[in-house]
Amino acid sequence: MQDRGIGCIVERRMMEHSMERSVEHAVTAATEVHLIRVARGPMKNNNYLVVDRASRQAVLVDPAWDADAIVAALDGTGAVLRGILVTHGHPDHTDLAGPLAQRYACPIWMPRREIAAFKYAAPQLVPVDGAPWSVGALRIEPIITPGHTPGCTCYLIGDALFTGDVLFAEGCGICPDEQAAHQMFDSLERLKARLAPHTRIFPGHTYGLPPGQRFDHVMQHNMYLHFPDRDAFAAFRLRKGQSMRQLLAFR
């Protein structure tokens, strides 16, 4: 697909780890996004290191499974970790938040509703509501998007949206019941209203398409963004016959 926007203008391999790799996406002239692929058993996750190019201050999104790969990415980029962003409370998104926050003496930003729902606790924990804040030149805007969990939150940083398990290039996160599925529909509608076409989507897992897809491309190919109402969406999201093996077929 031809890229005619100002989004991901460069993609190059930065470093090789024995098991995982980190890829740089130049999202804007001022921001770097480094993908760190990590895995434990069947759980394959995307961690992200977001770096302000001018100050080298950085935030880490949903760290899990492989501390060595994350430390190597920090060392390799010369970034200074100023905080950890957690999209939701599932263990594959919080696994290393506490240890890394202690190691780098930085805060863990986590949605307030998720802290309550999962009873998550850490000395460096800072609850997140809807107010934006900055790290260096990185403006971090939390967008509360419940459905997968009670307080799932996406983080918009420049032209990059970090979606956790809310939105994937090919679909959306699973929902435990009809009420949650209705919330997920509302959350996806909120993202559709908020995001520019050139916004890059960086999900917590990959099924096929690589992270960093433009939102207009996701809109064209993701059927979950085209249901007419909450009930139609919930009926499909909760349909029978979905196997956990298929739902966890990450790449």
Automatic annotation (TrEMBL):
Residue ranges of every copy of the Metallo-beta-lactamase domain listed in the record: 44-205
Highest taxon listed in the record's lineage: Bacteria
Required cofactor names: Zn(2+)
Keywords assigned: Hydrolase, Metal-binding, Zinc
InterPro entries in the record: MBL_Glyoxalase_II (IPR051453), Metallo-B-lactamas (IPR001279), RibonucZ/Hydroxyglut_hydro (IPR036866)
Gene3D superfamilies, sorted: Ribonuclease Z/Hydroxyacylglutathione hydrolase-like (3.60.15.10)
Pfam families: Lactamase_B
GO molecular function: hydrolase activity; metal ion binding
Keyword Hydrolase among UniProt keywords: yes
Protein name as catalogued: Hydroxyacylglutathione hydrolase
Species the sequence originates in: Pseudoduganella flava
Source taxonomy: Bacteria, Pseudomonadati, Pseudomonadota, Betaproteobacteria, Burkholderiales
